Amino acid sequence: IPDEHALTQLPGADNHLAWTLGHQAISRAWFASSLSGSMPEMPDSYNGLFGMNSRPSTDPGMYPPLDELRSQYNAALQALLGAVASLTDADLATPAIGDSGGFLSTKLDAAVKAAWHEGWHGGQIATLRRGLGIATPS
Predict the structure, then answer these.
(1) Who has the most CB within 10 Å: 21, 39, 98, 115?
(2) What is the rounded distance in angstroms from the CA atom of residue 129 to the CA atom of residue 45?
(3) How far, in Å, CA of 93 to CA of 96, rounded?
(4) Closest of 45, 112, 48 to residue 80, by C-alpha
(5) How many CB atoms lie within 10 A of CB 94?
(6) What sign does the CA torsion over 84, 120, 46, 4 have?
């Protein structure tokens, strides 16, 4: 999605690109910590801007630059993938680390819910791309 559409929200669509990048970054970091016990480094402002119960805003002054969001998005993905790859089959049956308020049970449950979360927001980005008339990458 071109930078000029980073804050575009289509009628009936949930989120814009900037919020989704930041939300996925903080969510990936949280899921990684539930698997490894170590929270990847993330700017302090991200939880308030992109965490649970946050909402997208069309105010460009609220958000970090897109390059930073993309960098955090990619770094958090690497942390999540590394955390998953480090687990043995036996590890997957152990409890997820940290207080998830009952959302996560085992590390396998955390990995599955992380994948579901990726798909959910990936679908929102696909809907945004389609609504903006942007062709699917080949």
Answers:
(1) 21
(2) 27
(3) 9
(4) 112
(5) 13
(6) positive
Alpha-carbon 53 to chain mean position: 14
End-to-end CA distance of the chain: 14
Q: What is the pTM of this model?
A: 0.93
Distance CA 134, CA 77 (A): 24
Sequence length of the chain is: 138
SS3 helix, strand, coil % of the chain, rounded to 5? 60, 0, 40
pLDDT in tens, 34-91: 999 999 999 999 999 999 999 999 999 999 999 999 999 999 999 999 999 999 999 9
95-113 b/e with 16+ CB inside 10 Å = b? ebbeebeeebeebbbbbeb
> Of 111, 71, 77, 73, whose CA–CA distance to 91 is shortest?
111
